[in-house]
C-alpha cells in the first residue's frame, strides 16, 4: 500500500525538511487539541492541521468546539475556542475522547481543557500569555506553570508571541499584527513534531491572503518559525510518526458534514435533472450549507436568503410546486417555525427536503453545541396527523449520501422529508472516498403530461395516486389541460376538490400515513461478528462513531456486542422489530432523554434500555465502553 | 418634481409568459367549483372583474397561477380555472417568490386580505416588495376579519367596536398604500371593488409591470363590516372624496372638479379648492417619480374616515427585479463554467490509497 498526496502545492512553496536527529516515536494514533481565545484562530489552525493529516493519508476525525459569541471577552473561559483532531494509521470512528496533546494559547484555554488531558499527556503553552492579568481573569491564584499543579503532564513552555514577533520583525508588520500570526507558529511547531507535510498549508495561506500578500508571507514565516523552533531548539527531544492509514483503495479528500450535505444537494439536483432552490435563513450550525450552495450556481442552484425561516421554506415549497427541487435548511428553532409549511407540504403532497442541523435546545439553547433532541419534533411537531419521512446521517461523509436519499424519497413519494443532521457531524470532518458520479442513483422524475381522470372526463385529478407508491402526480403549472388547485384544506380523494366529508377525511389521513409507512427503506444491518452477542446497541445519527469505537473496545476485551445503526427513522426498517427481539437486551444511547427509545417501546412493545447524555458534546468512546461493559456483565450474570 | 429615467431595459411583467392567439372568454377562467362567499360579498365582483380581465392579456391560461393565504379572499384560487394554491396564513408572498424565481414563464398572482397581508404576513409582504419580485399582489381590504367572524383588522379604524374590541379598538391602523411605498414597492395602485373600469385599468397596468405590484382593493364585507365603503359608492359622496389619479393630468376632483391637490411648504401634499390654489399650482400626477415621498404624500391625503381617497396608480417605476437578477446570476455562473459534478466532489486536495 502506498499513498500519494496531490496537494495544491503552488509555486513558491517548498517542503520543509527535518535534519536534526531526534528520537522518532511511531504511534498508531494521536489526539491533538488546539485551544485558545476565540480570536486566536484555533479553528483555522485545527483545520489546517487536519488537512495536513489528510494529505498525509491518515484516517482522521475532528471536533470543533467554540462559543456562540463571536468574540467573548478576551482571555476568559467562555471565550475559549478549541479544535480537536484525531488521526491514525487505521480507520477511526471518533475525534477521540481525550487529547494526547493540548496546545493552550492562554491560561483560559489551559484551565478549560486540562481536565480532559490524561496524566502523562503533553501540554504546549504559550508562556507569553501567562501574565498576572490573564491568570487573574480565570482565577488562577498562582501560575500553574510555576507551581506543581501540572507535574503529572509533560509541559513545554514556548514563548510563542515573542518568538512570532521576532520572526516577523523585518516584515514591517506592526507588533500587534505580527503577534496575531502566533497560531501559525503553533501549527508549524506541531507540524514538525508530527512530520506533517507543509506545502499544502503554505499554499493555503498564500491563497487565503491572496489580496494581502504581506499578511500571507507573514503567516508563512510564522508557520516556518514554529517548524524551525522545533527543529533547532532541542526543547523537543522526540518527534512522532503516524503512518498513513490502510483505508480501502481509492481517492480521498477531507470533508465536513455540512460541505458533504451541500454537495449531496448539488448531486441530487444533477441526478434528478431538476433546478434546485434552497430557501433558507441563516442559523447556527446550518448556515454553512447555504454558504456552500451559494457558490455552486453553475449547477442550476438558486439560493434564496429569505426574511425569515418561514419564508425560506415557503419559497422552497413554491419552487417545488413549479417543478424544482425545493430545499430548506435550518436548526431546531427554525424547524419550529417551519412546522406549518411542512404541514402544507404534507397536505399538498409536494416534494421538499427539510434539513435540520440539530443543536442544543430547547429554545435558543446551545447554538454551537450538538444534540439529537429534535427527533420527536421531526416526528410529531406539527398539527394534525402529519407524517413525514425522516433520515439521519451517521458520519460527516454520510451527509452526502443521506442528502441523495432524502431527495429520492421526497421526489418518489411527493412528500417533505426531514433530514436530521447535527452539530457534531456538520462541523466534524473525516476522509471521504470520493464517489464516482456514474455510480450515483438516478433520481429523475416524470411530470404529468396528460389529464388523468379515471372517469374519462378529460379532467386532471390532482390527488389521483400511483398504486405502488401512493404518490400523486406532479403536474406543473404551464402544462396545458392540467390546471388544478391545491392547498391546505382537506381534499377529496382523487378529484382534489375541497372536501369536509367525514369519511373522506378519515380516508385521506390514513392514505397520507400509508404513503409514508410504505416508503421502501433498506433493512437494518446488524454488526455481530461472531453471531453470539446477547446485547444489541442501537443508535442513530452522529452517535455512530462513539458507539462503534466503544463496541470495538468491548469486543477487544473478549465481550461480544452487536451494533446496528439507523439511517432511516421514519419509516423504520421493516426488519427492525425482528432485530430488536432477537437480542436479550437492547441499549439505545442518545444525546437526548430517550426519544428513539420512546418510539421503539411504543411501536414494538419491547423493552429498551436508554442511555442518555445531553451535554452538548458527543459521547466519549470510553464512557460508552463502560456502559456497554456493565450491561454485558449484568446480562451474562443473569 | 421630475421623473428619473433609470435607463433600465423596459421589460414588461408578462414578457416571458407564453401567449395564445386563441380568443379567450371569461367563462374559461371559471372553475367548476361553486363560489361560496356570503351573498353580497365584494369578492364576487372582484372575481368577475378578474375573470373578465384575464382574457384580455392573451396569455396561455395554464401559465397563470394564483397563490393565496388564508381568509375569505384567499379562497379565490379555487374559483379560477388556472393553476393555484390556497396556502397558509400570510405566507403566500414567500411561496409565490419561490415559484416566480424558478419559473419566469408564469404570471404569478397573490390574493390576500388585510389580515393575511398586513398582520400575520406583514413581514413577507414588505420583503417581497423591497426585493421587487415579479408578483401581482391583490390586497382585498375590507377592514375586518371575516373568516374568523368579525374581529378588528390592522386596517380597522381606531375605536372600532368588534367582537374582540367591545370598548373600541385602540390600535393605530396601517394605510396599505403608505406601507407598500415605505417598503419601496415599484407599483402601487388602489381601486374599489365596485369600480370595474377603474379596477381593470389598475390590474392591466399591474400585470404589465415587471416587478412587485400591489393593488389595494376596497372590498365590502356585508356581514361583519357592511357599508364600510358606502360613502365612496354614493355618487355625490364619492365625488367629494375620491381623487382619481390620471398620469400626466392635474390632480383634481369634486362634482365640478372644483377641488385639487397642491404641494405644502414642507414637501407634502394637501387638498384645497382650485380657486384658492390656482390651476397652475395643481400637482400634475406622475407615478414614475422615483422618490417614494410623492406617492406617500398622496397616500396620506386620505385617512381612515375616507375623507379623501386617491384611486388609480400611485407609483409605477422600473427597478431590477429579484427574480430576474437571481436567474441572471445562475445563467452567468453556468456560462462562465458549466457545473462538473465529478470535479466538484473531487476538489483540490486529494490523496490516493492504492
Automatic annotation (TrEMBL), chain A:
Q: Where is the Pyruvate/ketoisovalerate oxidoreductase catalytic domain?
A: 39-226
Tagged with keyword Oxidoreductase: yes
Q: Which CDD domains match?
A: TPP_PYR_PFOR_IOR-alpha_like
User: Which top EC class is named for this enzyme in its record?
Assistant: oxidoreductase
What UniProt keywords apply to this chain's record, in alphabetical order? Oxidoreductase
Report the record's Gene Ontology biological process terms: response to oxidative stress
Region of interest (Disordered), ranges: 1-20
Enzyme Commission number(s) of this protein:
1.2.7.11, 1.2.7.3
Q: Where is the Pyruvate flavodoxin/ferredoxin oxidoreductase pyrimidine binding domain?
A: 279-492
Give me the stretches of Low complexity compositional bias: 1-15
- Highest taxon, organism lineage: Bacteria
Q: Which InterPro entries match?
A: 2-oxoacid/accept_OxRdtase_asu, Pyruvate:ferred/Flavod_OxRd, Pyrv/ketoisovalerate_OxRed_cat, Pyrv_Fd/Flavodoxin_OxRdtase_N, Pyrv_flavodox_OxRed_cen, THDP-binding, Transketo_C/PFOR_II
**UniProt GO MF annotations:** 2-oxoglutarate synthase activity; magnesium ion binding
Task: Tell me the PANTHER family matching this sequence.
Answer: 2-OXOGLUTARATE OXIDOREDUCTASE SUBUNIT KORA, PYRUVATE-FLAVODOXIN OXIDOREDUCTASE-RELATED
Q: What is this protein called?
A: 2-oxoglutarate ferredoxin oxidoreductase subunit alpha
Q: What are the leading ranks of the lineage?
A: Bacteria, Bacillati, Actinomycetota, Actinomycetes, Pseudonocardiales
From TrEMBL, chain B:
- Which InterPro entries does the record cross-reference, listed alphabetically? 2-oxoacid:Fd_oxidoreductase (IPR051457), THDP-binding (IPR029061), TPP_enzyme_TPP-bd (IPR011766)
Return the protein name. Answer: 2-oxoglutarate ferredoxin oxidoreductase subunit beta
A GO molecular function for this record? Answer: magnesium ion binding
GO biological process terms on file: cellular respiration
Broad EC category: oxidoreductase
Its EC number is 1.2.7.11, 1.2.7.3
Oxidoreductase among keywords:
yes
Keywords assigned by UniProt, alphabetized: Oxidoreductase
**Superkingdom as given in the UniProt entry:** Bacteria
Positions of the UniProt region annotated as Disordered:
1-21
List residues of the Thiamine pyrophosphate enzyme TPP-binding domain.
Answer: 70-217
